[in-house]
Amino acid sequence: MNKKYNIWAFCLIISCVGLAGYSLYSNLNNTWILAPPNYILLFLSLIALILGFLGFKDKRNGWTKTRSWITIILSSFTTIGLFLIVSFTLLFSSMGANEYIKTVSSTDDNYTIDFYRFNAGAAGSFGIRGELNGPLWFKKRIYLEHNADEAKVEWENDRIVSINNHTLKLDKGETYGYQ
């Protein structure tokens, strides 16, 4: 049974590190966010850490010991990093940094966009952000406008939307306000 803890912990933490890395990449480059929310990744990295400690009992050869150490080190750093990210997010979201405004859907319900008002307070700017919903938890940030308080949305057809007089062709992957 210890053999299974070792391999499961290793596979789980490699998956968590990969998903956390892709989550960071997708947030920086405005691509589809395919990774689950950070609190789920934190939970999975904690499970990997626990299974990694249980996997230390497997002492068949050098590779199993090395795999256990790699698992413990990676899961420790990943858990600490994700804990800091989740704490930071909870701290600033509770201070009113992001406020849900509304959700709009295309006429054929193929596209759904959630709009949020953001306000960095005295340290930054304020504005509107729009996120296109995909399946499961997948999202893509498609609209960002600074110094705006509301989102006036009009659907020109099933694939083209006008937000505050900025037209986006969603089927072409167009965005506004992102590089």
Would you give an account of this structure?
The chain is elongated and about 65 Å long. The mean pLDDT is about 85. The protein contains three helices and seven strands; from the N terminus they run H-H-H-E-E-E-E-E-E-E. The protein has about 180 residues and is an alpha+beta fold.
The first-to-last residue Cα distance is: 50 Å
Main pleated sheet: 4 strands, antiparallel
In DSSP terms (H or I, runs of 4 or more residues), the helix count works out at 3
Task: Give the CA-based shape.
Answer: elongated
Instruction: Tell me the number of strands.
Output: 7
The strands making up the biggest β-sheet line up spatially as 1-2-3-4
Structural class: alpha+beta
Lay out the secondary structure.
Layout (H helix, E strand, L loop, with lengths): L1 H28 L8 H18 L6 H32 L4 E8 L6 E8 L6 E8 L5 E8 L6 E3 L4 E4 L2 E4 L10
Antiparallel strand pairs: 1-2, 2-3, 3-4, 5-6, 6-7
Helix pairs in contact: 1-2, 1-3, 2-3
Summarize the structure.
The chain is an alpha+beta fold and 179 residues long. It contains 3 helices and 7 strands. Helix content is 44%, strand content 24%.
Features:
4-stranded antiparallel β-sheet; 3 helices; alpha+beta; elongated; 3-stranded antiparallel β-sheet; 179 residues
